[in-house]
Write a structure and sequence with these properties.
The chain has 312 residues and is α/β, with parallel strands linked by helices. The chain is built from 12 helices and 12 strands. The strands form 3 sheets. An 8-stranded parallel barrel has the order 5-6-7-8-9-10-11-12, surrounded by 7 helices. The chain binds 1,6-di-O-phosphono-beta-D-fructofuranose.
Length: 312
């Protein structure tokens, strides 16, 4: 038996000895038995507020996220990879030894490769995906249930929203349902919010990126993954628009290391919550040392020039 008994400032939870009351300022994602609430934990919000995000702390180190993304095999196809990186085991080795706080995989790869020692790295399962082949306004339908992700040992689930697509109503509806289901399981939801479609003229325009951040907050994402356009002042506004939803950036196509490290430094120092990157790491000639350098910037706030020696 469990009754809803909470308001904005108080959470009442049933314990074996009756009711207990936890003081709290922030939002609550749903009503949960006591143990689940304790597992969920109360964690510091991105900009110092108190905010409840289901089990988000597992995905962070020193409050920052460093996710290794490897869903490009589906989104872009094998051309992103070489003989070595096409093997998911190599990607998982980088995630484990490189000190990433999570690895992002599609369900098929997770089921076949996420075993043994790799389980030390939390798993984020992408629940939807599409190829680059159809030239239509994109929709990326759910291909994996929350239940299935839980069975694989997922610590969070991911979903791509194409805001601006003509399929936006269906996308939003599907995403809303996923948020509900994932939160019922105590899993955080990470939304890739990528503006796309014939009505989106410039997906990297400042106002469009800020709009994507806000969409994530409004629809219930615990974290949004956004593209960064290099405009640091706008990025600070993007963080404000996201409110208590955390913000990580994607890496995009491979760029020179120094440029990538500077971008990461700028984003983290502006208050961003971290990275969810793929190609800039596993397409690098030295992905293991690059990951170490990234960690020094993301977790310890070091400057790019102070970590370059790690790449020699
Ligand atoms: P990268 O850091 O390699 O850009 O990966 C981030 C990511 O969001 C992947 O998770 C996803 O597969 C890809 O980018 C999608 O990129 P796009 O749709 O822009 O081609």
């Amino acid at each position: 038996m469990f009754n809803k008994a909470m308001d904005y400032k108080n959470i009442f939870v049933i314990t074996t000895t009756g009711w207990s009351r936890c003081w709290f300022t922030g939002t609550i994602v749903g009503e949960k038995p006591c143990t689940t609430l304790i597992n969920a934990g109360l964690s510091g919000g991105p900009r110092g507020e108190r905010v409840t995000i289901p089990r988000m702390s597992r995905l962070l180190r020193n409050g920052k996220a460093m996710f290794l993304a490897c869903d490009q095999g589906l989104e872009h196809g094998p051309s992103d990879f070489n003989e070595k990186s096409i093997d998911p085991q190599h990607i998982l080795d980088i995630a484990l030894e490189g000190g990433f706080t999570a690895v992002i995989l599609q369900p098929g790869v997770a089921e076949k490769y996420y075993h043994g020692a790799y389980k030390e790295v939390p798993l984020i399962v992408k629940l939807n995906g599409k190829t680059r082949l159809p030239k239509i306004d994109p929709i990326s339908r759910q291909t994996c249930s929350v239940e299935r992700a839980v069975k694989m040992g997922a610590s969070a689930v991911g979903y791509t929203i194409f805001d601006g697509s003509r399929a936006e109503p269906e996308i939003f509806q599907e995403f809303g349902r996923i948020v509900e289901e994932a939160h019922d399981h105590g899993l955080p939801v990470i939304a890739w919010v990528y503006p796309r479609g014939q009505d989106v003229k410039d997906d990297l325009a400042n106002d469009i990126i800020a709009y994507s951040a806000r969409i994530g907050l409004e629809l219930g994402a615990d974290m949004v993954k956004l593209k960064y356009n290099g405009d640091l002042e706008n990025f600070k506004w993007v963080l404000k628009c996201a409110g208590r939803t955390k913000v990580v950036i994607s890496g995009g196509s491979k760029k020179p290391r120094e440029e990538f490290l500077k971008e990461v430094y700028d984003v983290v120092h502006a208050g961003g919550d971290g990275l969810a990157v793929g190609r800039n790491v596993w397409q690098d000639e030295r992905p293991f040392s690059l990951s170490k350098a990234l960690g020094e910037i993301v977790y310890r706030g070091k400057r790019p020039e102070d970590v370059l020696h790690l790449l020699n």
